[in-house]
Write the structure tokens for this entry.
Amino acid sequence: MDMSQSPVAQPDLRELAKRILDHLADPQVVQKLADLMKDLEIRCAELRELRRVDPACLQKVVTL
Amino acid sequence: MSSPWEVHPYSKETLRDLLAQHSLVSRASLDSKLHCIYFDGYFDNLAAKTIVVEQGYVDRDFLEDFAAYYVRCFERYERFCTRLHFFDRSFGSSDFKSLLEGSSSPLDAKAVSESYLGFVVVKRLPRTIIGRTCLRTYPSAGRRHYPIIRQYDVSLFGLKLAVRTLAFQEQDRVAAACATSALWSAFHGTGILFHHHIPSPVEITTSASSSAFPGLRYLPSKGLTLMQMASAIRSVGLEPTHVHAGNLDIVRDTVYAYVRGGIPVMLVGTLSEHPVPAVPQPAELHAIVATGFSLGGAGGAAGSPPGFSSISARIDKVYCHDDQVGPFARMMVGGPLPICLSTSWQDTKGQMGSVWFQPQDILIPLYHKIRVPFETVQERVIRFNAFLSFWDNLLGGVLGGAVEWDTRLTTVNEFKTDIQASSLPAGPRRLLLERSLPRFIWRATGSQAGSATLDVLFDATGLDESDGSILLYSAKPGVFLVLEQLRGRGAIAGLGTTFELIG
């Protein structure tokens, strides 16, 4: 991709890029993000469990 | 020789008279037949005005059932059917006769074609008489969505007619139980999409029963197990994807993701009366096919997990082919039971409104190349959404706030057709159109304040375990910038590092 076309090249967004870098250098921010993803992993595992098929149900007869 | 056709003004009574006349069911019993009650409302909504009766109609599906079962009965059943055609324009026998004779008439072929609502095949059987039924859907009204419908071409004495719908038929409890009827309707949807043979009901029952299962004879069919339904799906060259309906969000999310992509979703569950009657009925399993949905309610409805908003949470009604009710039967989402949909079934007192369908299993017939299931993609979108939200908070809302996600299966052709029709700026538009993409794609579109601002594509034919995202387009420079910066410093949650970023 032609980086001269990137929004980073726009002056009003350079400041934003700098803020992102500052946040990334902050260990607290990095830890918070890691904690958030860990929490999401638990929630996604719960969703997977709710979707899990019981193999015994394959023998249930659909009769109506 | 009697005329092979008749023309009647439409009325509920006339329809019931014709159904009785062309079947072996008594006129009195039709008043309580659920299909008749359903058709009353359906044809009222479609504003039906005229019925044309086509006698001596050969229906391919019934002919297969007839050859496999009815022909060997001692009773002499009729192999020919009657087809009832419906029109939302009034005309009489003399108009129709003139049309066939080619003489001057106020009725012309164009007017007949434009007013065509579809047809119902009537089988000359003692109980289960509703054969292949192809009826126009209700108008969209901005909320009803029927992504699975396709065109059925009809020839009525040389008149070329067409109706956009998905075929329905009642189970006959001999060649087909409800599971077979559900599969038959589903195959009418997948047959065109994935180019496979559409088997007749008896062919479905036979292929399903070829898998090992003790105890049940296959004809007359008393039902299929989920394993047999899966076998029937494999017999047409598709792969069955099976999901447990663990909560209502799973039902809504799954129906939306696949039905929006044109793939019918079969729901298997129990029917139960609520409040529970004095003499409770045994809970038997029933199968229906989700063929559409209604998106009501306000935008940004909460989904699960908390903080994740999905358009599927706005589904307030699912339209289903329920072989014992009718085509596109409206089922309200939610009710007195934790996971339930309303039905049009009658309770033990013959009343409607207290029988609820509780989905337990979801079965989706998929083309074999669609390997990555919806749940894998949804997890990635959930992670990515949380990631965006985290950075949006950190950066003071520069990313535009909460995102509502619209995640569905699509194809490269549909995606590029959408891009062609869009008003994207020239640069990203060309990049997106020129990009080589797999045939099947999971597309997650993120909207903020009602406008689509993000599009993430995942390879549906790839590896379940990989990050899988292949392309992200963002219309917002701020989002583009944040992602561009963050990707260079490690994986972006839910998307990984390998995707192409277009903005």
User: Anything to note?
Assistant: Residues 27-51 of chain A form the longest helix (25 residues). The two ends of chain A are 58 Å apart (CA to CA). Residues 7-51 of chain A form one domain.
